[in-house]
Design brief:
Largest sheet: 6 strands, mixed
Oligomer: single chain
Shape: globular
Helix content: 25-40%
Radius of gyration: 14 Å
Number of strands: 6
Strand content: 15-25%
């Protein structure tokens, strides 16, 4: 199965998790990069940032796509909003998994974020297979390799 992991990372928590998942799934990584860094205020208002490159082309031949990103201000980050709202991003019956990281221990608002991003995926023809919410760190705080391994190790990714 051709698997692509599309991720955005501000504090390296999501990047570290994406790299771990890439090893488990033998997947290709696609990092979303912004022309100008998005912020929590943009996230709160569900705004999009401007992405560099053409990341939507990287999922064209994928059968399975993992979307990995942090939650800021209880909402999806501007980079993932931009990716999902781009009319060139086509999921066309691809299996999609959403994996989010947030500072809140109770994972507050993750269901709303998964619903919001899942609806954008479905509008583009994708099929949401699973969603996962994990605790990361506060914005600009890397929680460390061991903490990321611990959180990612709670899911049997190779059995999905």
């Amino acid at each position: 199965m051709n698997t692509v992991i599309v991720y955005y990372s501000h504090s390296n928590n999501t990047r570290a998790a994406a790299e771990l998942l890439r090893e488990k799934l033998d997947a290709r990584l696609v990092e979303l990069k912004e022309e100008k860094k998005g912020n929590a205020i943009q996230a709160f208002f569900r705004k999009s940032s401007k992405l560099t490159g053409k990341p939507w082309e990287e999922i064209r031949d994928a059968d399975r796509v993992y979307l990995m990103f942090p939650i800021w201000a209880g909402k999806s980050v501007p980079a993932i909003n931009a990716f999902l709202r781009n009319p060139l991003t086509k999921f066309d019956r691809k299996e999609v998994y959403i994996v989010t990281f947030q500072a809140s221990e109770d994972l507050k608002n993750s269901v709303k974020v998964h619903d919001f991003t899942g609806n954008l995926v479905r509008k583009s023809g994708g099929v949401i297979k699973e969603t996962y919410a994990m605790q990361g760190g506060n914005m600009n705080v890397y929680i460390g390799d061991e903490a990321i391994k611990d959180r990612m190790g709670k899911v049997r990714w190779d059995e999905l």
